[in-house]
Amino acid sequence: AALANQIAAGEVVVRPASCVKELIENSLDAGARAIQVHLREGGIAEIVVIDDGQGMDEQDAALAFRRHATSKVYEPRDLVRIRTLGFRGEALASIAAVARVRLTTRAVGAETAVRVAVDGGEMGPLEKVGAPVGTRIEVRDLFYNTPARLKYLRTVQTEQARSVEVVQQAALSRADVAFSCQTEHHVLFQTPGNGDVRAVLAALYGVGEAKQMLDVHAASNDYRVYGVIGRPTQARSSRGYAHLFVNGRPIRHPGIHQAVVQGYQNRLMVGKHPMYALYIEMDPSLVDVNVHPHKAEVRFSEEPDVTRLVSQAVATALDGTLL
Ligand code: ADP
Ligand code: MG
């Protein structure tokens, strides 16, 4: 089982950022209102995720690291229409197979918390400890027992940037949840969790970073597009300030990104790149999110319709304004 878990881990956990992503998704699935992420050495030495979600009782905590253990029950068709974030029941087992993990969790209504350590897939005893309601997961020494994988990691700086990007995307996808992200040296950002996307962008990039963030919204029968677009005061790469979500998931889509940039540049006639956070909502059957588990690329069945609506939405938002 240990080897099977290590192999499975290769699919789920390729770097600290993928670990951070899975842990945050679990916290969101648990209904957390506040999520803290701590990174040491870019997440290679340690990732800690603390949430105030519903927590796990003793039984759930004992099962959480088993492969295909999931408390989330699905109909087969849910696998093609994924709405919740976790659905495979393998993230924790995979992470615990390639790191030293400590879980401390207290369920709503429970008198105490439980703590359990899993080291390279081997689970230690369950202890009762004092802790607030919610879950704290500490992941240390990622890939300590799989040197081949450790070798694939980039520099601390690169791994940290990728991990932080995951937290940023999560914070933007859930402006109603308060996120904080810190390293061993600084607090990188803290979002208020008040539902305001502008407030999240201000927390990520600095309050004065965008001039005049404009509301974007448009809808057709099948799609709804909303969000904000603005002009960054500092130059960044084209992707630097671009955030796109489909049904709540952060995605990359060069065609849609291009449509946004084009709409913005047509209106302003400058070579600048916009800062934006755009959210597209659609029937999940019109989008394939399973193109690749990590790249977060999607395929739309009616791509031209989506692109056209996004272009229109951006054009309308910018119409008559002088950014
Ligand atoms: P999945 O999310 O696909 O169910 P995971 O391996 O990510 O599988 O998690 C296994 C189980 O552990 C979850 O189904 C859930 O019951 C529990 N769990 C994991 N993280 C948390 C958390 N932060 N809060 C509450 N329960 C959690
Ligand atoms: Mg999960």
TrEMBL record:
One of its GO terms (molecular function) is mismatched DNA binding. Residues 201-319 form the DNA mismatch repair protein S5 domain. The keyword rRNA processing does not apply. It comes from the Bacteria. GO terms for cellular component: mismatch repair complex. Keywords: DNA damage, DNA repair. GO terms for biological process: mismatch repair. This protein is involved in the repair of mismatches in DNA. It is required for dam-dependent methyl-directed DNA mismatch repair. May act as a 'molecular matchmaker', a protein that promotes the formation of a stable complex between two or more DNA-binding proteins in an ATP-dependent manner without itself being part of a final effector complex. Belongs to the DNA mismatch repair MutL/HexB family. This is DNA mismatch repair protein MutL. It comes from Alicyclobacillus hesperidum.
